[in-house]
Records
---
Amino acid sequence: MYRFDYVRPKSVDEAGKFLAAQAKNGAKILGGGQSLLPTMKQRLAQPSALVAVAGLADLNYVRVAGNKVTIGGATLHDTVARDAQLQKLVPGLTHLAAHIGDPAVRNRGTFGGSVANNDPAACYPSAVLAIGGEIITNKRRIAVDQFFKGLFATALAEDEILTGWEFTAPKKSGYGKFLQPASRFAIIGAFVAQTDAGVRVAITGGGNGVFRAKPLEDALAKSFSAAAVEGVKVDMSHFNGDLHASAEYRAHLATVMTGRAVASCHGG
Amino acid sequence: MEKTLFKAKPKADGIGAKVLRREDQKFITGKGHYTDDMNRPGQAYAYFLRSPHAHAKIRSIDIAAAKSAPGVVALFVGKNMESDKVGSLPCGWTVKDRHGQPHKAPPHYPLARDTAKYVGDQVAVVIAETLEQAQDAAELIQVDYQVLPASVKCDATLKPGAPQIHAEAPGNLCYDWELGSQSDIDAALKSAAHVTKLTLVNNRLIPNAMEPRAALGEYDAGTGNYTLWSTTQNPHLLRLILCAFVLGISEAKLRVIAPDVGGGFGSKIFAYAEETVCAWASMKIGRPVKWTADRSQSFQSDAHGRDHVTVAQLGMDKDGKFVGLKVETIANMGAYLSSFSTCVPTYLYATLLAGQYTTPIIYANVKASFTNTSPVDAYRGAGRPEATYLIERLVENAAREMKMDPAVLRAKNFIKKTQFPYQTPVALVYDIGDYDASLNMALDMIDYKNWPKRKEAAKKSGKLRGLGFSTYIEACGIAPSAVVGSLGAGVGLWESAQLRVNATGTVTILSGSSSHGQGHATTFAQVVSSKLGIPADKVEVVEGDTGMIPMGMGTYGSRSLAVGGTAIMRACDKIIAKGKLIAAHLLEAKPEEVDFDDGEFIVRGTNKKRSFGEIAFTAYVPHNYPPDLEPGLDETAFYDPANFTYPAGCHVCELEITPETGEVKIVDWVAVDDFGTIINPMIVEGQVHGGIAQGVGQALLEHGVYDADGQLQTGSYMDYAMPRADLLPNMRLGFTVTPCTHNPLGAKGCGEAGAIASPPAVMNAITDALGISHMDMPATPEKIWQVLQGTTSQGKSG
Ligand SMILES: Cc1cc2nc3c(=O)[nH]c(=O)nc-3n(C[C@H](O)[C@H](O)[C@H](O)COP(=O)(O)OP(=O)(O)OC[C@H]3O[C@@H](n4cnc5c(N)ncnc54)[C@H](O)[C@@H]3O)c2cc1C
């Protein structure tokens, strides 16, 4: 690691002020550090300062009111996974959180860190994009559909803190994940949400960032069943090949994982 | 030759008892002491600048900025070691090629001199007050590289036009070696009724011990003595190599200490550049120098394993009796020859090609090649997994092609119980075994009778089920010195033990074996407890320190019990013999009238006796003592084994494939092993479990991949897939016992068996499930899915 300053603000406000002044000099937000710290250890990142938000109580919560849900920006994966109300209301989301990494990762890694990082193989972005709603920051609200901007890119400004996500619980939700054998990130993850605005399917792991798969959504709109997506093809331009899977296999898995996600909605 | 088998009485803490590992408490509670836990006054930290290129000429190195960076104590490059006459890291086994010429041995300098030959090759070392400062300074070193074309594949590197890696090895050929007669095998295959042919790759593996390599060198300017703490598996051998071949210092001036070592799997046998530099640099700067690999460095610079390409042919008569086996292998040595790299694909590989079978004629040709990759050397099983994989895949295919049951074909060709000792056509003499017994027990345990029903039931639920056998053999207890010497080994492979009986009757074993996870402290105490008839908790085991242990050859090749344990038994015999002299004196009898039984010296036919503790006390308080006898009860014994030992057995893997994705689920695993006498069943089961996990890892997940430019693509756990618990079913173990005939314990060794047996069991099951003849490891879901796509478009066969 290179040298850096460690800043522990007492509130989102204080963190925001520090970032407003220092982000341009290389200050970065530190969530659970599960993505950022490994890159720093390998000297692939050199922030001037880390502003730790994970300990802020006002960012660490799951709130459920009727079918309105808000998840705080620094909520641990484990907190989401174990939330009893959420397990009933959005089982796809708690299942997803429960299968991120290992217990150590889930008890450090935060919702905001995952979504702000927008790793092309991360799980959470698929849930957020499929379920919709709004991303809340210390500055504004951003519609989910405007939030993800491709590989490791989001609508967030450098000094902007993701403080939460607010959404209406989908009627049904499910997540199908095919593990990359080494990292156990998603080779392909498919999140299916049956929302008021129709069925939304978001695919992660394709290689170019999370995206919505229209052909799968159309098929599921006609019949919300695993059988409905069998053989449905997703545009190949969304998929890249690498050491672990070819583009062709990923495209195939996107369909199969969507089928599994739907099956899980039906208790399968 | 050791003919009498020691028969231990049943005892709660002796031979055969499931004693909890005494070392686990400290390891599990974080109270171990590893090399990186050692800190010495004035210690500085080393950081190695490694080549980012697989092959590059080093035109110049500008160290000015780095040298004056904060905290920097010293900075060395290859030239500095050269002018100090620090030598090349030697390869300890000379393999003679088919024309009698020794293998090509290009130098391997601890810091590269003119050319970097793989990504990770050490180009410079910075020593600073802190590790961070050393690393900061290393970033300021300006190396002017002239990048050269790289060669990474073991077969392509031998083709004309491939980049030339060492001037000493034209065409990148290290050796072209053979065993057996080519004309004999060609004739045998020609006359065969059927020949099964297979081309296969044994995938490159990266060892990944839990504890990364580390070293701490300290030089005492007052005495001129060096101390080197190292994560080595054999401290005495490291001392020998560093003193006699590399640093040119007296062996008496270097003390090597291997404190707790967290796994090695072979990768810590070898003498490495980094520890050499730490020892040497500590003298140069007059301060202790520590280096600890981080995981990325381990991936890059630990010796890797396997990496073969093989074409094999098995000839049979019309009834399926094997008439000949021909094997042509190309083995990757990597960029330099690691300490024992040359013997792995030759004497530890081709000599095992008979397997459990009576194949009368066997021929092997092995070409070893240089590539711009990390050196390749012994890794759990070392040569024997490669041999077993090849034989067992071939035999399975032979059965399919002959339309015979694979279990029946195997049994038909087994060396039978009555045929031992059995001289194979590939040099080894198997002393004992019962291959039908382990196969039959395995068939029973897996319920082979009902296998077709299970396959059918799986098909109904949309799964493809496969079953695969592996009837393996290995040669352990490495090894008779005269034999390995005649084959080119530069060392003897005996083991030593000192048994120090303390005045109060407790015992300290100083063993030349070097545990790095095997549980010697528990097992050896059990052995001595049974042999001397004293409680195991009165026995302590000391290993891993050349300053304390007379001599040693370390732990690898499943040798520590069969060879090291026998040395301990012999030292016990010497203790008992001396004890008898003391007892005879005390009991006023003749020494030959004194028997030793279960902790007591007894005058035969009388009730006159003395306990072991009384004799120990008398030896150190010799007030009433035989006049000509030296006081003390402390004996050292060496043991040079008469033969290898031959653990063998049968593993069966049953698995299911989900056709829509190619996912594999292992649903059952039966392992029946014959390790001879088992000292601690719990430790043995643990070794089998771990070995199977490693072998299944090779079959399904692990693969060290370099891209065409020689960059390691699988350089971290993000990309190199290790086996996890959920990969494996509950493994069901069975044991048969034919005690080894030439050591008093009857022990054969168990450390590598699982890793040797399991890959072909998995791959035989996968190819069975898919109805195909072969797939290279690792069998990833995508590869399987691709196969199924192919079959689907051809109209599914089955
Ligand atoms: C072994 C391992 C396995 C893993 N497996 C998975 C997996 O299966 N699936 C998966 O999805 N992920 C996985 N992860 C990643 C894990 O979920 C991380 O926790 C997550 O990606 C990043 O969250 P974090 O809180 O640790 O963020 P950090 O690492 O602290 O930060 C990541 C990035 O987000 C920024 N950031 C952090 N918090 C905020 C915020 N509130 N507002 C704005 N920007 C912010 C940081 O500046 C940084 O750029 C794994 C990680 C590890 C180490």
---
Amino acid sequence: MQITVIDRQNQSHELVVEPGTRSNLMMMMVDAGLPVRAECGGSCVCATCHVYVRQAPAGALSELGEDEEDALDLAFEPGPDSRLACQIPITDACDGLKVELAPEWP
Amino acid sequence: MSHTESQTSRPPGEVSEIETDVLIVGAGPCGLFATFELGMLGMRCDVVDVLDRPGGQCAELYPEKPIYDIPALPDCSGEQLIDNLLLQARPFEPRFHFGLMVEALNRMDDGRWRVRTNDGQCFIAGAVVIAAGSGCFSPRKLPAAGAEMHEGEGLLYAVRERERLRGKHLVVVGGGDSALDWALNLHDIAERLTLVHRRDRFRAAPDTVNKVRALIDTGAMDFRAGAVAELVDDSGQLSGVRLQGGDQVVCDHVLAFFGLSARLGPLTSFGLDMHGDHIRVDTERFATSLDGVYAIGDVCWYPGKLRLILSGFHEAALMAHDVKRRLHPDIRHVFEHSTTAMKEHLGPR
Ligand SMILES: Cc1cc2nc3c(=O)[nH]c(=O)nc-3n(C[C@H](O)[C@H](O)[C@H](O)COP(=O)(O)OP(=O)(O)OC[C@H]3O[C@@H](n4cnc5c(N)ncnc54)[C@H](O)[C@@H]3O)c2cc1C
Ligand code: FES
């Protein structure tokens, strides 16, 4: 399975997903050492795991929930492709997902 | 005193010193429970927090969310937990100092610590407990061109003097409780108030949202969906905001509310042995690498550390017993359960 993250220096990173992983994109990025603050540890309140979705295979992403939409109010420069990585569970359908880290709050 | 800073660098009269047994940095759940544990063992606590109220993450990030893993409390909100912790510690009258950031620690010749805050207030304490969580909470800054230049004058992240805003044209940015509460609070003294939020939905208490909606519907308040791109400057004075898309709103002041973000800040310069962004402690005493300085709660690290409120409570108890041994080395320590110890403080039941 291939998940690509583009960091803030425009470098591409392929995340290694072990079969049977039950995780979310935020945790995968943190484990891979990518600079994601994730201040609330995945509780959907801080929006410091904000990413822009660049490519989403069918079924990779669930609908944007109300909680996530609310938390996105606190994201830095949210746009139409904004999602919170802690709210993206990793499933087989995520193969081919490509996201970009949003800029950090100054 | 062996501290290195010079007292003369601050204007005379601004320095004020408070002597205490224990100075606690951070009024989150762990700092609050520490005042109880230390109080029960007979020690006087002063607590400093950069925020203007107690509660740390529980109060700032999730006051209404239920917490399910506090032993013997099947369900309580962040706010209830903090209210109860304050109630529990009340017999010991901890003194709170809000709106102050702890900036420096200096060891004195007699082994006590001198703790300096950002506004000159100092504390002399026999022990220091760092319960700083993930760091100092500070407001997220408006991501708009010209924001830095107007910060503190035209651009505000908190309202200290409401009267200063009377008769002004105000723009309030944000869609949560802080933004909406301030919009309600200020709209009747402002000449005109415009609320700017990225979408036409607010994430605040339903009653607040209804009141704001009513004001917008009757035209008493303006609403613009969008984001502020730039603060417009007229020879050094803020004269308006330009929204993304180009529209301008004339105003004298912008109040921006994007929530808080935690930064470790000054703690990194205390000379403590760190593990990444966390303070290394031993698990027997919760002592740091500096003699007489302790760390508990989210800010501390040891193998197996879990960042749970529960863990912070346990850490507070062990810390308190060691602080007592440190401050009262001559007294023979007899362990007492709260069932016995609290009689002295609350009277027999
Ligand atoms: C959404 C969410 C849900 C959670 N749910 C749970 C749960 O269900 N169960 C659970 O056990 N835990 C939960 N947690 C974690 C829990 O809130 C933390 O473990 C807890 O708040 C840590 O307490 P603390 O006292 O160590 O630090 P904090 O609560 O972070 O408080 C630290 C305080 O120190 C202040 N401070 C820092 N540096 C300075 C300085 N230099 N000068 C002055 N003040 C300073 C800060 O302003 C802050 O107020 C949750 C966290 C979040 C965000
Ligand atoms: S980690 Fe805080 S919202 Fe995702």
